[in-house]
Amino acid sequence: MSRKVLATISLVIEAGCAKPSPPVGPALGGHGLNILSFCKEFNARTAEIKQNVPVPVKLTAFTDKSFEWSFSSPPASFLLLKAAGISSGSSKPGHARSGTISLKHLYEIAKVKKSEKGNEFVPLQSICSSIIGSSKSMGLFITT
C-alpha cells in the first residue's frame, strides 16, 4: 500500500551545512517533519562534497510524517561561475563580458550534469549545448 503524499518541497542547501534554522526549519516544520533527523542525514550524505556548494534537494513529505529526499549536483550556473573564477555573471549579457571559460570546462560540467538522475539517456552533446546557452546568458566568453 502506498503512502499518501502531503507535500513536495524543493530547497537549495549548502553541502554539509543543514541547520534547523531557515530555510530548512520553516519548510520542514510547517509540515510536521522531523527537522533534526533530516539535517543529520543530509550533512552525513553530503560530507564528501566541498563545503559551501549549493545542493538542490527534493523532499517528499507523507501524511504519516515520514519523508524521502534526494539531492542532485550543483546548478550549472554555480559550476560555470567557479570554473570562470568569478563571483557573478554579467549584468548586461551579450554586451559586457563577465569572464571566460574554456570548452574543456564546459565538457567537464556537462559530464557532471549527465550523471544526474534523468539525464542518463540525454546525449552529452545536448547537455553541452544547454550549458553553452547558460554561459552565454551569464555573459561568459567561450574559448577553445
Summarize this structure as a short list of keywords or feature phrases:
single chain; 144 residues; alpha+beta; Ribosomal protein L11, N-terminal domain; Arc Repressor Mutant, subunit A; 2 domains; 3-stranded antiparallel beta sheet; two-stranded parallel ribbon; 5 helices; 5 strands; 22% strand; elongated
CATH-wise, what's the superfamily of the largest domain? Answer: Ribosomal protein L11/L12, C-terminal domain
Helix proportion of residues, in percent? 25-40%
The total count of helices amounts to 5
Q: How far is the N terminus from the C terminus?
A: 55 Å
Brief write-up:
The chain is of the alpha+beta class and 144 residues long.
Helix-strand blueprint:
Layout lengths: L4 E10 L9 H6 L5 H11 L8 E9 L4 E5 L4 H9 L14 E4 H12 L9 H14 L2 E4 L1
Parallel strand pairs: 4-5
Antiparallel strand pairs: 1-2, 2-3
Describe this structure in words.
The chain is an alpha+beta fold and 144 residues long. The protein has two domains: 5-71, Ribosomal protein L11/L12, N-terminal domain (Ribosomal protein L11, N-terminal domain, 2-Layer Sandwich), CATH 3.30.1550; 76-143, Arc Repressor Mutant, subunit A. The chain is 36% helix and 22% strand. It has five helices and five strands; from the N terminus they run E-H-H-E-E-H-E-H-H-E. It has helices spanning 24-29, 35-45, 76-84, 103-114, 124-137, and strands spanning 5-14, 54-62, 67-71, 99-102, 140-143. The strands form two sheets. It has a three-stranded antiparallel beta sheet with strand order 1-2-3. Strand 2 (54-62) and strand 3 (67-71) form a beta hairpin.
